[in-house]
Design a protein that fits this description.
The chain is α/β, with parallel strands linked by helices. The chain has helices at about 10-15, 55-60, 65-75, 85-90, 105-115, 155-160, 180-190, 200-210, 240, and strands spanning about 35-40, 80, 120-125, 145-150, 165-170, 195, 215-220, 265-275, 275-285. The chain has one domain: Dihydrofolate Reductase, subunit A, CATH 3.40.430. The protein is globular, with a radius of gyration of 19 Å.
């Protein structure tokens, strides 16, 4: 059951629907935010060209996708992403110092502040190793968001004083404890809705930990292929050049997968079209509940 949503602008509802979310899990020891992820992928299921074009904007090429990203950010108390995504965006992106994961559309910023009654969006950057220099990135100097770091005991030692005061510590050694981190966000920092924007390794970790509830997925009408093409070799980083034609461009889910018996299934909630792009919404089916049955060949 989704929470009732305040009255939204007619054009917004026509494209995105009511966009209500269920209440977050409430059990005292298991309380955590409702977690929804957002990705754009090609027809062949890839989310990045990799190399010097790591960002999803190279896949999307769509103003509607950018607008949808802002819409989802407007509904989230906090956004979470991996440090590697920030580092790659800063290294190869168009903006010196990297991106600030904020709401750009003025109408959707007003929606967040005046209709939904939410304050600054928290940007939570996750680094298990602590190999991140916050002073190198615009995000940690921005007035538009609250920039936090989530790390491990080992990562905290590596970060040192450069991390500042907004640091959440979880897990053991260099491994993040996702259930503990999300419980802390909900119980101590009031985060009811958490938006995951990747990258694939972080998203894969969260799915395996069983803490992802929904996935918004934009399908971009192009095919790009998994291997790096020969004509791009000279412009790519050395580690990409060494694996030309073999290196796999990432899907949204990275790391160990599931067996047939444990693979995650989702309910299809909605699908909308803008031009030739398709915007889908899925909600996870709890393990073992009403899963599709094996079928015989016709």
């Amino acid at each position: 059951m989704s929470e009732p949503n305040p009255a939204l602008p007619e054009g917004l509802v026509r494209f995105a629907g009511n966009l209500g979310f269920p209440p977050p899990p409430q059990e005292s020891l298991e309380a955590r935010p409702w977690v929804f992820a957002n990705f754009v992928q090609s027809l062949d299921g890839l989310v990045s060209f990799g190399g010097t074009r790591p960002g999803g904007e190279w896949i999307a090429r769509s103003q509607h996708d950018r607008w949808m990203m802002d819409l989802l950010r407007a509904h989230a108390d906090a956004l979470i992403c991996g440090a590697r995504s920030l580092i790659l965006e800063a290294r190869y992106g168009k903006i010196p110092g990297g991106p600030v994961f904020r709401i750009v559309d003025p109408e959707l910023l007003r929606l967040r502040e005046q209709v939904l009654g939410l304050g600054k969006l928290k940007n939570i950057i996750v680094t298990g190793s602590g190999k991140l220099r916050p002073q190198d990135y615009r995000l940690f100097r921005s007035e538009h968001v609250e920039a936090w770091i989530a790390t491990t005991p080992q990562g905290r030692r590596e970060l040192g004083e450069a991390a500042g005061s907004r640091v959440l510590i979880t897990g053991a050694e260099d491994r993040v404890d996702w259930k503990d981190l999300l419980h802390t966000l909900r119980s101590e920092h009031g985060v009811r809705r958490l938006l995951c924007e990747g990258g694939p390794s972080l998203y894969g970790d969260m799915v395996r930990a069983g803490v992802v509830d929904e996935k918004f997925l934009t399908i971009s009408p192009q095919e790009i292929g998994a291997g790096l093409p020969q004509e791009m070799i000279a412009t790519e980083p050395p580690e990409q050049q060494a694996n030309a034609g073999v290196t796999l461009r990432p899907t949204s889910f990275s790391g160990p997968g599931f067996a047939i018996e444990t693979a995650r299934w989702y309910h299809w909630i909605s699908s909308r079209r803008a031009g030739d792009h398709e915007f889908n919404r899925y909600r996870i089916i709890p393990s073992g509940q009403n899963l599709p049955q094996e079928i015989s060949r016709l």
